[in-house]
From TrEMBL:
Keywords: Membrane, Transmembrane, Transmembrane helix. This is DUF2842 domain-containing protein. InterPro entries: DUF2842 (IPR021265). The lineage of its organism: Bacteria, Pseudomonadati, Pseudomonadota, Alphaproteobacteria, Hyphomicrobiales. The chain crosses the membrane at residues 12-36, 42-64. It comes from the Bacteria. The keyword Transmembrane helix applies. Pfam families: DUF2842 (PF11003).
Length: 69
């Protein structure tokens, strides 16, 4: 697969990932954190704010292509 096509597909995947992840994370927060204390909100949004990076790293590694030796 050409590098330009791989990067284009990866960019689209990352955009979709961020949009879907933000929607799901906020929906879960609204449904479950209504009566939680402030530190519960802080902890939840800290964890969910960092958790999307893991699948994004996999997509970025795929976009870079195979390692060259």
């Amino acid at each position: 697969m050409p590098v330009r096509l791989r990067k284009f597909i990866g960019t689209i995947l990352i955009i979709v990932l961020v949009l879907v992840y933000a929607l799901v994370a906020n929906t879960i927060a609204v449904a479950t954190l209504g009566s939680a204390p402030w530190w519960g909100h802080l902890l939840y949004f800290l964890l969910t704010g960092l958790l999307w990076i893991l699948p994004a790293m996999v997509i970025i590694k795929w976009m870079a292509g195979p390692r060259q030796q």
